[in-house]
Amino acid sequence: ENMKQEAIEYEKQQGAFYNDMITHVKSVLSDVKKHHPAYDPAAGYELAGFVWFQGWNDMVDGNAYQNRDRPGGYSAYSEVFAHFIRDVRKDLAAPKLPFVIGVMGIGGIAEGKKGEQMHFRQAQAAPAALAEFKGNVKVVETAPFWDDDLEALQERMEKCNNKFESEAKKGPKQTREEKDAAKKKAIDQAFTAAELKRFQTGVSNGGYHYLGAAKILAPIGKAFAEALLPTDPKPAQSR
């Protein structure tokens, strides 16, 4: 009985975030002026495009993809991704909605030539090759925008922090203020002033979030926007 209830609860969770996304988009479009006061209802609006830039949790999901390190290990991802594109267009009543696939670029070009990332990136891009999607689903490779220098700084900082924490546990007990001061001193000794400034102003998150770096993410966003620029001056999805 418990297993049956768990199965029911699990089924309820399926598609929850997708439904939230579609509901939110429809809510905004039902009252555009509420969200954009300058909106002119007479002019209408255009669904200019849809960008999908996700994937890390799928890539590392060993339950869903048990052959991740082998060619074809993510073939199921490609299949459901194609259904995802069809569903978005259907649910937003925009059958010609331009779609951009932001292929994972974590770790840069080198990381995409080996192991799971290589297979996963291929699986992400695969739907664009389907006949029904040619010309209306585009692929943007994000690996070229990765910053190896920022990644190296982040890795060095992690090692520095880990080393400091390990040594602090072996030493005499410190107050929070003493520990913070000692940690700052250790970091200042491990990095030049220029390196530390670049790290502090350039990195705000983990590698799986593209280091939270504007230097990486801003050009990626620009590339997505450029990929969505229409070749036909007439808006295909006006309302």
Indicate the low-confidence ranges by residue numbers. Answer: none
Q: How do the strands of the widest beta sheet line up side by side? A: 1-2-3
Strand content: 5-15%
Main structural class: mainly alpha
Order of helices and strands: HHHEHHEHHEHHHH
* Main β sheet profile: 3 strands, parallel
**Helix share of residues?**
40-55%
How many helix segments?
11
Terminus-to-terminus distance: 49 Å
Mean pLDDT: 92
Radius of gyration: 23 Å
Shape label? globular
According to DSSP, the number of beta strands is 3
- Please, what is the oligomeric state? single chain
Q: What features would you describe in this structure?
A:
The model has no long low-confidence stretch (mean pLDDT 92). The protein is mostly helical and 239 residues long. Helix 8 (148-170) crosses helix 9. Helices cover 54% and strands 5% of the residues. It is globular and about 65 Å long. The longest helix has 23 residues, at 148-170.
Could you give the topology of this structure?
Elements: H1 2-13, H2 16-30, H3 32-35, E1 50-52, H4 56-59, H5 75-91, E2 99-103, H6 108-111, H7 115-125, E3 137-141, H8 148-170, H9 176-190, H10 193-202, H11 214-227
Parallel strand pairs: 1-2, 2-3
Helix pairs in contact: 5-7, 8-9
